[in-house]
């Protein structure tokens, strides 16, 4: 083969490159480049027409300068000129320049497309390939519009050269990915599928990528490819190592094509046709057999190529998950690799086995390798291999080996790399909880976790252990004893102090009988840690102390003295000072009964999914945690995971009574809401700054969409609201927070708060995929009349939402006057090239602007009578769609925003409420009466709901909204 | 990284190919996704950082953002291919080697300087073997025959 000499063809270019390489400094390089740029500019501008060679040389120099990292702002036209040259080398440089410096300058695009068009119709295969490669590299929409119709024709035409077919197939693939709407396969489908039969292996190699992509999008239309792929695969697999000549790589016949065929088959379920299936199983068996044969070469290329096919075959076997025999054979093969001297193979075997562990057929077979995997965890040099070993241990864990695996993972944690500790901690915590038979083991494990890797124990983990201890009374005594012992260590992690403080505060009484852990000993132990802890932990400890006063009256004097000390009661931290002052006061004035009520034991937590699991998934991205975790557990907490755990901490500071509203000590400021409290002032400013003009603007379409949409509005019209959006709206009438919407890609969470006639809503858009959303935009609009009733303002969101990430959007709402409709939220983004367009109703309802009004029975009835005109009353009688649980009803009525008035209605079964709806224009007093016939048979239960207000529209709307809630 | 590809698990492709030397100089950057120039520079630096710290006892694979890099070192040059996490590691590892053998034959014992002075030809070699993020041709004989034919053209 003749070699290519340095820069042959363009001497001037070689000289320039040498000059640049000889530059001693960055400055010298820039100087040389500027000189060259000036030279090229003058040549391009000069009177003398440049010949093709010079143009090529200068364009190539410009390209080189660009690739060095400098901006190039001229030369595009000269590059485009080169496209129409008859000489390959000139054309090639022109196309290369265009491909690298894509410029969406529309005039140039037209010229470029024109040149491409000429080359495509030139019947010169070299020029056709150059043109196709340019389209494949740029792949712009303009190009798709111009060529999406032409390329399929080139691809399937009988007289097209093989190399052109290869390029055409992949070019089409690129256009399909960029603009699927423009590539219509319809009539070509069958002929494209039959490219799998092409004699030229290179054509098959290229075409199969296109077919795989199209199949994954339209499996039904392309399903004939399955039998073709199987027979092609079968021919390759059964061929001798030299049969395929050019396509044999280190004695392995067509390794890349085999992998692609096996990958295509993973778009489909196992073939239904028995003969096809038999043939495929035979192929898979042959591939597994070949892995056992002695290698035909000692070269690593040989074994890599062979194993590339093997791993792809195993992926297919796992994908089918229906052939126990193959699954077990695959597992055995991977088991051999676990001890292979090649690090790559050990890594890949661990990774592949992780998915095998989740198949019921091979789970047991995977488990037999536990010792090897544990050994890998201990001895592998490459951290990524150890990581896979840890993943596999996690995946193969079940009740039978949980204790061994958790113990090994714990001991590995002592020396584990910092980069994977947090994930390991989460995994240990999950396994310990999932497979705990006796909860004392669970408690031990978590406390060990804190001891070994306290810094990596996130809040979710320690919240969770507290939830579990509180919910299981059989473990409470053990937990108290164990934390007490753990706290004996002279240096223990702050997380241990948190758990200790919480658990002893709740259950210290269970071990107080032992003089070695008497109340005072417990208190002194906790307090000995106090000064080394951060503010939140100290706050938690103060709550533990007040609980101690309740649990053990004998500690009262000691603790009061501590609370009274200057370092507490005059603490510079407001939160600590407030707790000290209030707890001291509470302990001195409250009677024992009151104290006992206020500081009653925590009620059990509702059973819910482990927030730790959600966190692990978030860390690893979907798919990576492939264990048999139930799908239902996938739903991550939108509002920052473990919020119930957060409540636990708050409740601790509240010293907990069961009623949710009993914020006796006013300590809720530690809660997440605190972030929003100071913003109330600025909220007012924000809302009022533009309130006037926006309200009066008209311009409404018949269908209610605002014509005055923001200037950045995308070209696509917003989709009509989802059919279920009314239902979603109803879900939020009596609550302010929760998940508004969820599909496979996107989850939208809501947090909102209202004050007077103002509201602020936080929308959390969570990307559930591992792939970025692009062109993400949201528009909030007020259809029809609503425009003059509500003033809604939003800030735009970032156009990119990373995979697994969440973005927040704040919406400010001002209620100008009462209203019926809800604002519309339209969300648009591109996922995998496809536009997603979703419209929802924002759950802003008139009742959000209620101010509760307390009043005595006499007042209530007096006002009730004053509102006796027929139009002031709205009434509905309806069947109960849910049970008539008193607490639930009360919670809903409170959620509505009104005050629930006790002892007003003569009939204790009935509920009456009062509130004032605050709008900018007026205040509308509103009275409500709900009469259930609870005695009726289930299914016959009815309500009568009566609303009276000073405004007929308000009565009707509130009545309609509320009637949907019961 | 923007993944504009089809979401199905079976459809994968190359995100970019990089050739860098130990000092971090880029000798080839071929992108199969849209990035702006700053992002490209960032990616180049990140890849260099993760790849150069690894030694021969490590695997040829390294997790990278939501993707993975399959790489192999030849003398002072790192050849890196960025693909989806579930793609076939060994197929791409040998894809790199196949590419390097073609370069070696084409440039007759290829060295780093060949790639510098003939950067515009390297792009041609890449397009012959990888197109639109997919493997286009794997036969060394066929690729070299085509390259020699192009070489003979004016």
UniProtKB/TrEMBL annotation, chain A:
Subcellular location field: Cell membrane; Membrane, Coated pit
Location of the region described as Disordered in the Swiss-Prot/TrEMBL record: 623-656, 702-724
GO biological processes: clathrin-dependent endocytosis; intracellular protein transport
One cellular component term from this protein's GO annotations in UniProt: AP-2 adaptor complex
Membrane topology label: Peripheral membrane protein
SMART domains documented for this protein: Alpha_adaptinC2 (SM00809)
Highest taxon of the lineage: Eukaryota
Binding positions (a 1,2-diacyl-sn-glycero-3-phospho-(1D-myo-inositol-3,4,5-trisphosphate)): 11-12, 43, 53, 57-61
Low complexity composition-biased segments: 647-656, 706-717
Alphabetical UniProt keywords: Cell membrane, Coated pit, Endocytosis, Membrane, Protein transport, Transport
Pfam family of the protein (one): Alpha_adaptinC2
One GO MF term attached to the UniProt entry: clathrin adaptor activity
Domain Clathrin adaptor alpha/beta/gamma-adaptin appendage Ig-like subdomain: 730-843
InterPro entries: Adaptor_Complx_Large_Subunit (IPR050840), AP2_complex_asu (IPR017104), ARM-like (IPR011989), ARM-type_fold (IPR016024), Clathrin/coatomer_adapt-like_N (IPR002553), Clathrin_a-adaptin_app_sub_C (IPR003164), Clathrin_a/b/g-adaptin_app_Ig (IPR008152), Clathrin_app_Ig-like_sf (IPR013041)
Family membership: Belongs to the adaptor complexes large subunit family.
Quaternary structure annotation from Swiss-Prot or TrEMBL: Adaptor protein complex 2 (AP-2) is a heterotetramer composed of two large adaptins (alpha-type subunit AP2A1 or AP2A2 and beta-type subunit AP2B1), a medium adaptin (mu-type subunit AP2M1) and a small adaptin (sigma-type subunit AP2S1).
Role noted for this protein: Component of the adaptor protein complex 2 (AP-2). Adaptor protein complexes function in protein transport via transport vesicles in different membrane traffic pathways. Adaptor protein complexes are vesicle coat components and appear to be involved in cargo selection and vesicle formation. AP-2 is involved in clathrin-dependent endocytosis in which cargo proteins are incorporated into vesicles surrounded by clathrin (clathrin-coated vesicles, CCVs) which are destined for fusion with the early endosome.
Identification of the protein by name: AP-2 complex subunit alpha
Species this chain originates from: Oncorhynchus mykiss (Rainbow trout)
Gene: ap2a1
From TrEMBL, chain B:
Pfam families (alphabetical): Clat_adaptor_s (PF01217)
Gene label: ap2s1
Residue ranges occupied by any AP complex mu/sigma subunit domain in the UniProt entry: 14-153
Lineage: Eukaryota, Metazoa, Chordata, Craniata, Vertebrata
Alphabetical GO biological process terms: clathrin-dependent endocytosis; intracellular protein transport
Main location (coarse class): membrane
Domain of life: Eukaryota
GO terms under cellular component: AP-2 adaptor complex
Localization: Cell membrane; Membrane, Coated pit
Keywords from the named record: Cell membrane, Coated pit, Endocytosis, Membrane, Protein transport, Transport
Family: Belongs to the adaptor complexes small subunit family.
Entry keyword annotation includes Magnesium: no
Topology in the lipid bilayer: Peripheral membrane protein
Protein name: AP complex subunit sigma
One MF term in the entry's GO annotations: clathrin adaptor activity
PANTHER family per record: ADAPTOR COMPLEXES SMALL SUBUNIT FAMILY
UniProt keyword annotation of Amino-acid biosynthesis present: no
Species, as recorded: Oncorhynchus mykiss (Rainbow trout)
Subunit structure: Adaptor protein complex 2 (AP-2) is a heterotetramer composed of two large adaptins (alpha-type subunit AP2A1 or AP2A2 and beta-type subunit AP2B1), a medium adaptin (mu-type subunit AP2M1) and a small adaptin (sigma-type subunit AP2S1). Interacts with CCDC32; the interaction is direct and mediates association of CCDC32 with adaptor protein complex 2 (AP-2).
């Amino acid at each position: 083969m003749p070699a290519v000499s340095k820069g042959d063809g363009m001497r001037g270019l070689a000289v320039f490159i040498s000059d640049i390489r000889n530059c001693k400094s960055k400055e010298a390089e820039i100087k040389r480049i500027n000189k060259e740029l000036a030279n090229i500019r003058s040549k391009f501008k000069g009177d003398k027409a440049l010949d093709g060679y010079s143009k090529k040389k200068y364009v190539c120099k410009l390209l080189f300068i660009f690739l060095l990292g400098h901006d190039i702002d001229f030369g595009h036209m000269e590059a485009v000129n080169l496209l129409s040259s008859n000489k390959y080398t000139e054309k090639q440089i022109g196309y290369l320049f265009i491909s690298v410096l894509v410029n969406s300058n529309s005039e140039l695009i037209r010229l470029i497309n024109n040149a491409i068009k000429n080359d495509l119709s030139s019947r010169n295969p070299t020029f056709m390939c150059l043109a196709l490669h340019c389209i494949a590299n740029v792949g712009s929409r303009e190009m798709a519009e111009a060529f999406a119709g032409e390329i399929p024709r080139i691809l399937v035409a009988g007289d097209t050269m093989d190399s052109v077919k290869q390029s055409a197939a992949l070019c089409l693939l690129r256009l399909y990915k960029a603009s699927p709407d423009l590539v219509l396969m319809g009539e070509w489908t069958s002929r494209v599928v039959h490219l799998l039969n092409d004699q030229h292996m290179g054509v098959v190699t290229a075409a199969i990528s296109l077919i795989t992509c199209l199949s994954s999008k339209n499996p039904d239309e392309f399903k004939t490819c399955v039998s073709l792929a199987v027979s092609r695969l079968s021919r390759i697999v059964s061929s001798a190592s030299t049969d395929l000549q050019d396509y044999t790589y280190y004695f392995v016949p067509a390794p890349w094509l085999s992998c692609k065929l096996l990958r295509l088959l993973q778009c489909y379920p196992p073939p239904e046709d028995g003969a096809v299936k038999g043939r495929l199983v035979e192929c898979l068996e042959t591939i597994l057999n070949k892995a056992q044969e002695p290698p035909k070469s000692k070269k690593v290329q040989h074994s890599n190529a062979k194993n590339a096919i093997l791993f792809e075959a195993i992926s297919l076997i796992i994908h089918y998950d229906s052939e126990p025999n193959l699954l077990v054979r695959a597992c055995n093969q991977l088991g051999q690799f676990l001890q292979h001297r090649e690090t790559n193979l050990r890594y890949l075997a661990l990774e592949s086995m992780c998915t095998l562990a989740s198949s019921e057929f091979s789970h047991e077979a995977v488990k037999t390798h536990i010792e090897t995997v544990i050994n890998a965890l201990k001895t592998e040099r490459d951290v990524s291999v150890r990581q896979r070993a840890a993943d596999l241990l996690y995946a193969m864990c079940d009740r039978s080996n949980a204790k061994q695996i958790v113990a090994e993972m714990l001991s590995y944690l002592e020396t584990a790399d910092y980069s994977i500790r947090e994930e390991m901690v989460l995994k240990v915590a999950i396994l310990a909880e999932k497979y705990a038979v006796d909860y004392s083991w669970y408690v031990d494990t978590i406390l060990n976790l804190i001891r070994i890797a306290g810094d990596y124990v996130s809040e979710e983990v320690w919240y969770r252990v507290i939830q579990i201890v509180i919910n299981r009374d059989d473990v409470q005594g053990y937990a108290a004893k164990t934390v007490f012992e753990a706290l004996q260590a002279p240096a223990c992690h702050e997380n241990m102090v948190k758990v200790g403080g919480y658990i002893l505060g709740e259950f210290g009484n269970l071990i107080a009988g032992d003089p070695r852990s008497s109340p005072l000993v417990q208190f002194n132990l906790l307090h000995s840690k106090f000064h080394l802890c951060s503010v939140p932990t100290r706050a938690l400890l103060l709550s533990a102390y007040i609980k101690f006063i309740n649990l053990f009256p004998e500690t009262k004097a000691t603790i009061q003295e501590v609370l009274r000390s200057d370092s507490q009661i005059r603490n510079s931290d407001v939160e600590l000072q407030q707790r000290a002052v209030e707890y001291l006061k509470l302990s001195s004035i409250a009677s024992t009964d009151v104290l006992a009520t206020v500081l009653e034991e925590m009620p059990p937590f509702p059973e819910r999914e482990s927030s730790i699991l959600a966190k692990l998934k978030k860390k690893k991205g979907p798919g990576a945690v492939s264990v048999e975790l139930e799908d239902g557990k996938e739903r991550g907490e939108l509002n920052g995971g473990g919020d119930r755990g957060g409540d636990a901490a708050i409740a601790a500071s509240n010293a907990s009574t069961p009623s949710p509203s009993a914020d006796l000590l006013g300590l809720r400021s530690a809660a997440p809401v605190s972030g929003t409290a100071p913003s109330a002032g600025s909220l007012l400013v924000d809302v009022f700054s533009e309130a006037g003009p926006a309200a009066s603007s008209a311009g409404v379409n018949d269908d209610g969409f605002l014509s005055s949409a923001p200037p950045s509005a995308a070209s696509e019209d917003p989709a009509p609201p989802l059919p279920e959006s009314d239902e979603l709206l109803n879900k939020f009438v009596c609550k302010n927070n929760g998940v508004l919407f969820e599909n496979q890609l996107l989850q939208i969470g809501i947090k909102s708060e209202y004050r007077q006639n103002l509201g602020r809503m936080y929308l959390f858009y969570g990307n559930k995929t591992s792939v970025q959303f692009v062109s993400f935009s949201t528009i909030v609009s007020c259809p029809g009349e609503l425009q003059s009733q509500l003033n809604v303002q939003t800030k735009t969101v970032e156009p990119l939402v990373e995979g697994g990430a969440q973005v927040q959007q704040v919406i400010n709402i001002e209620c100008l006057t009462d209203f019926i409709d809800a604002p519309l939220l339209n969300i648009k983004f591109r996922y995998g090239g496809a536009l997603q367009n979703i419209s929802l109703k924002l759950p802003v309802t008139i009742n959000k602007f209620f101010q509760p009004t307390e009043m005595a029975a006499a007042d209530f009835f007096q006002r009730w009578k004053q509102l006796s005109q027929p139009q002031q009353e709205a009434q509905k009688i309806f069947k109960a769609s849910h049970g008539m649980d008193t607490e639930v009803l009360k919670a809903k009525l409170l959620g509505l925003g009104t005050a629930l008035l006790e002892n007003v209605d003569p009939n204790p079964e009935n509920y009456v409420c009062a509130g004032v709806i605050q709008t900018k224009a007026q205040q509308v007093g509103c009275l409500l009466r709900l009469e259930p016939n609870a005695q009726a048979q289930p299914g016959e239960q009815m309500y009568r709901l009566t609303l009276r207000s000073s405004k007929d529209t308000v009565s009707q709307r509130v009545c309609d909204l509320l009637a949907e809630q019961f | 990284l923007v993944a504009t590809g089809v979401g199905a698990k079976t459809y994968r492709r190359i995100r970019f190919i990089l050739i860098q030397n130990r000092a971090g100089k880029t000798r080839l950057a071929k992108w199969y996704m849209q990035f702006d120039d700053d992002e490209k520079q960032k990616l180049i630096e990140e890849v260099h950082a993760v790849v150069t710290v690894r030694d021969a006892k490590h695997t040829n694979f390294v997790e990278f953002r939501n993707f993975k890099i399959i790489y192999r070192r030849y003398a002072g040059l790192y050849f890196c291919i960025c693909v989806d996490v579930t793609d076939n590691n060994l197929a791409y590892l040998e894809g790199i080697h196949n590419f390097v053998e073609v370069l070696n034959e084409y440039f007759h014992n290829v060295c780093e300087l060949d790639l510098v002075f003939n950067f515009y030809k390297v792009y041609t070699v890449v397009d012959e073997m990888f197109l639109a993020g997919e493997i286009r041709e794997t036969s060394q004989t066929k690729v070299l025959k085509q390259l020699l034919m192009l070489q003979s053209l004016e």
